[in-house]
Design a protein that fits this description.
Layout lengths: L2 H40 L6 H23 L4 H20 L10 H13 L2 H22 L4 H103 L1 H29 L3 H4 L2 H15 L4 E5 L9 H22 L3 E9 L2 E8 L7 H19 L4 E6 L5 E8 L30
Helix pairs in contact: 1-2, 1-4, 1-6, 2-3, 3-4, 3-5, 4-5, 4-6, 5-6, 6-7, 6-11, 9-10, 10-11
Length: about 450
């Protein structure tokens, strides 16, 4: 329902309640006026100035108390006081019939409607029963306890009495339900405001976490460039100084140093390319997830030909968000980089599985494991950032030594089980070096 429709519905409900309330109050005052006119017009010749003035004063006081009760938001104690005053004025008016005035039975009905409109149901039933008994006693004294006259009057008044009580009770229930609905709407509005504020705070925190992740990534890349490219450039500077000194004295050795300098420069260029690839993974934007992982595998094979890589990507994947695809791509990139630089492994397994609404990525090697100081440093910088990236997506990262040797990194992310018509997966086998999981099971 739109906000405009909610406003129109609330306005209609408030208008309906005002109409019903106004109609009830107006009906009460009209009934009082009719009873007053009937009493005054049917009383002569017994109508005297004394009983006329007394009756008029009682009616005016009754109307004043009823107006006060209907128009003011009174406390429970003041409501009880108003009900007692109305009851006393009703009894006084009824007993005024002993002076010769016509009996005003309509005022009893108005007072009964006040009971069921202002009191709780139990109190209203008790007060209504007492009022009906008082009316019966009043009628008995007026008819000098002639039951042949009393019974027809009581039987004719009882349906009207019950109808007025039920009608007033329904109005009271509607009013209470409306107040409860207004309270619930107010609470709902407060909850919506709190929810919006929490949503804004969550967006703010998400932006801060994203910015922190970017800062961590930049710090890691800066450290990586410093540790690799800076090292090679330092070696290259020293070799150039050596070449300049040996160029005239020992040309043969200078030629060897020039060849070594070229090799170091080539390695520096490769490290620059690796850093650029880490900053801008274009493959994940143009390929499927498994295709991008396969491309990482081919790059790994080129940079580490001594390590046999097995890619096990044969699984039926659900629709994956771009953020999760990038996170998994980064996970494979980070772990393969650590294996190439620190693990000194001869075998590596990369496996992607989707089972029981859980997407799992496993990278397992048979290298040095956590005993390597360099690997411990990579664990501190690379895997911490990887864990933060995955946890933002609702997943978790676990890593540690493998049995009997090596290191394993596991990434698990819950993904809704919504299958897609076609399989977005492939088994990638690298030429010559990469082995399939069926042909050669990964064994440490």
């Amino acid at each position: 329902m739109s906000s405009r429709q909610e406003i129109d519905f609330a306005a209609l409900s408030a208008s309906l309640e005002r109409t019903i309330t106004t109609a009830g109050i107006s009906s009460a005052f009209i009934t009082i006026a009719i009873g007053y006119l009937i009493t005054v017009l049917t009383t002569p010749p017994e109508l005297t100035p004394v009983n006329f003035l007394t009756f008029t004063v009682l009616q005016v006081l009754y109307c004043a108390v009823l107006w006060w009760l209907a128009r003011k938001h009174l406390s429970e104690r003041l409501v009880a006081l108003a009900v007692v005053l109305l009851s006393l004025l009703t009894l006084a008016t009824g007993w005024l019939g002993l002076t010769g005035l016509q009996w005003d039975w309509l005022l009893y009905l108005v007072t009964a409607s006040v009971y069921f409109g202002a009191l709780s149901l139990r109190k209203a039933i008790v007060a209504g029963a007492l009022l009906y008994l008082s009316m019966m006693v009043n009628l008995g004294f007026l008819d000098q306890w002639q039951w042949s006259h009393i019974y027809p009057s009581l039987l004719s008044l009882f349906p009207a009495y019950v109808f007025v009580a039920v009608f007033s009770l329904v109005l009271h229930i509607l009013s209470v339900q409306k107040e409860r609905a207004e309270t619930l709407v107010h609470q709902l509005e407060e909850s919506n405001a709190e929810l919006e504020e929490a949503h804004r705070q969550l967006q703010k925190y998400a932006s801060e976490v994203e910015e922190l992740a970017v800062v961590r990534e930049r710090t890691r890349l800066a450290r990586e460039i410093h540790d690799t490219l800076g090292h090679y450039l330092s070696i290259l500077t020293i070799q150039l100084e050596t070449i300049s000194k040996l160029q005239e004295r020992d040309p043969a050795r200078a030629a060897v140093e020039i060849a070594e300098a070229r090799r170091v420069a080539s390695q520096s260029m490769q490290e620059v390319r690796n850093a650029i690839a880490a900053l801008r993974p274009t493959s994940i934007a143009t390929l499927t997830l498994t295709g991008a992982i396969a491309q990482l595998g081919r790059e790994f094979e080129q940079n580490a030909p001594e390590t046999a890589l097995t890619l096990d990507l044969d699984t039926r994947l659900p629709p994956i968000s771009p953020d999760l695809q990038v996170a998994l791509y980064r996970a494979v990139q980070e772990t393969l980089t650590n294996v190439r630089k620190h693990a000194n492994a001869s075998k590596v397994l990369v496996r992607l599985r989707y089972e029981d609404e859980l997407l799992e990525l496993l990278v397992l090697d048979n290298g040095l494991g956590p005993s390597s100081n360099a690997n411990s440093q990579a664990e501190g910088f690379g895997l911490v950032g990887l864990r933060e990236r995955i946890e933002l997506l609702g997943g978790q990262v676990s890593h540690g030594p493998a049995e009997p040797a090596g290191y394993r990194v596991t990434v698990q992310v819950p993904v809704p089980p919504t299958p897609i018509p076609e399989t977005i997966s492939e088994r990638a086998t690298l030429p010559e070096k990469a082995n399939t999981a069926q042909e050669s099971p990964f064994a440490i």
